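ok trying again, last paste got cut off:
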Amino acid sequence: MNLWKISFQNIKSKPLYTFLSVFVLSLSIALLLGIQQLKNTFLNQMNTNLSGIDLVIGAKGSPLQLVLASVLHLDNPTGNISYEKAKKISETSSVKSAIPISYGDNYKNFRIIGTTPNFITLYNAELKEGRITENTMEVILGSTVARKLNLTLNDTFLSSHGLIENDIEIHSNSLKVVGILKPTQKVIDRLIITDLESIWDVHKHETHSEDINEEHLHEEHNGKKKITSLLITFKTPRAFLTLPRKINKNTNMQAVLPKYELDKLYEYTGTGFKTISWIAYLILIISSIIIFISLYKMIKDRAYDLALLRTYGATNLQLIKMIIYESLIIVSSAFFIGFLLVKIGFYYAIQIIETNYKQVILQELPFDEISKIGALILSIVILSSLLAVYPIIRMNISTILSNEK
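nice, full thing came through this time. structure:
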């Protein structure tokens, strides 16, 4: 007796219940897989892009905005700070390393960052080809920039003023590509890196930009150079308590702990993640109830057929296996459809993310996470199936056959 074949025929005989069970269960699976992938992506972006950055110093304003702009490179900077004052802070005994970064320009919406060679080391990035910058107006491309813009070594381009591409404020100084980085899956992949002098020189020589006034030019000529922020790594944990407080209290700058700010952001977004997860679990419970009702009704409606199978030698265990096989077919179909829905959904999400952020930040869900969700769903559905087979265990063959006659 082929139990799989009988189970499949039983499923075909009740298309409405089967469709409803598969549809609701696949929706639950898609939500659970999708929200877990988003959570993993969010945590991965926080962990990998912090890259040992203990403190961010910048202009006063929103602490979260400063972190998003200086660490994740997603927001606008809060302003500029004095490079000389930043250098004095970097000479503090508790500071292990201090990397200045300066924003101001972009090329086709990819941000150009003036910094030092240590910025590349901070993200453990390596050159795929070319060399590091040695002169002003030379740039190194992140892997995503080079791939998206089809730029190669020795190519030149003109940058636009600001962080959004425009045809109005285009600088006259050409930037030359001297290096391309290997992919890192970090924010550096979507950045164009140059030295600080290139950023200062481009703006010092501009005369048509309304943002560059005489006072600013005077400051540049007198050594009062500006940077966007300073990325600091501490020598000892004690510095976490002393240096930020000292800077916030005694200077016109703000010192922000990026991990603290990103943890707060995760708490806010985590509420949304939890809400969607609970909705998914609720749908999973509903789908399990539907499967239970479907199987229980099938057993009650086909009591005579099941009793006949018993008279032909089928055991209770075989009948129970037949019911469980039906559940497995439903779960397998639902998991495939749910997984497919997640893939399709994230395919379109990736297109949107690439358009807005110039990089694919979504992380593939690890196999063990998929396995955990699959095991949970399988366990709940099998439990529903085992509850539904109670009439089989209590079956009185002679009574059922005599009543049908």
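cool. Residues 16 and 378 are 21 Å apart (CA to CA). The first strand starts at residue 55 and ends at 59.
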